[in-house]
Amino acid sequence: MLTLRPAVPVDVPVILALIRALATYEKEPHKVVATEASLLRDGFGDRPLFQVTMAEVEGHPVGFAFWFLTYSTWRGQATLFLEDLFVIPEARGTGVGKALMQFLARTALQQGCGRLMWNVLDWNQPSIDFYQSLGAQVLREWLTVRLDGEALQRLAGKG
Question: 2-118, what's its fold?
Fold first, then answer.
């Protein structure tokens, strides 16, 4: 039986393992620099920066949704932003991903959000197909822009 539940601090090693598995799937395992300490600090302190919803079958972790609230200036409403959704290969196609997405949709509405948003890699056709089957639109005209590392330091006047 599938169970969805909020993550607790003892889940952090599993969360980090799932993050690493996702990075491997996305062909960039070397890019994960998150640590158990950073996840504990930022997700389970006085002011959590993110939420994690664990998916378990018979008490065994099979996936997670890593999310947080942001704000849409145009809508004048909160947005639930899904940073990562991952289901282990053995559990794909069993309804775990759909259950996590349904949970996030309900949570978005309960939190007064006007939308649920996330990114997907353009080569990840199985995920694109899955998201579209849920009624999601892939907004190909929008590009993700990122500033990190040395460029971030330079812009901040630190490098």
Answer: Aminopeptidase (3.40.630)
Cα–Cα distance for residue pair 126/99, rounded to 1 Å: 17
58: closest CA among 109, 1, 134?
Answer: 1
C-alpha gyration radius of the chain: 16
Q: How far is CA 88 from CA 35, 96, 140, in A?
A: 20, 10, 27
What pTM was computed for the model?
0.94
Task: Give the strand pairing for 77-87 and 115-118.
Answer: parallel
| CA 51/CA 6 separation, integer angstroms | 8
Q: Which residues, 6 or more positions from 119, have their beta carbon under 8 angstroms from its beta carbon?
A: 144
Instruction: Calculate the alpha carbon distances from 93 to 32, 35, 55, 62, 136 in Å.
Output: 26, 30, 14, 12, 18
Quick one: which of 4, 9, 26, 33 has its CA closest to 84? 26
CA 81 vs. chain centroid, Å, equals 8
Does the pLDDT at position 159 exceed 90? no
Tokens of 38: 């950073």
For residue range 27-55, what is the model confidence (pLDDT) as tens digits? 999 999 999 999 999 999 999 999 999 99
- Positions annotated as catalytic residues are 131
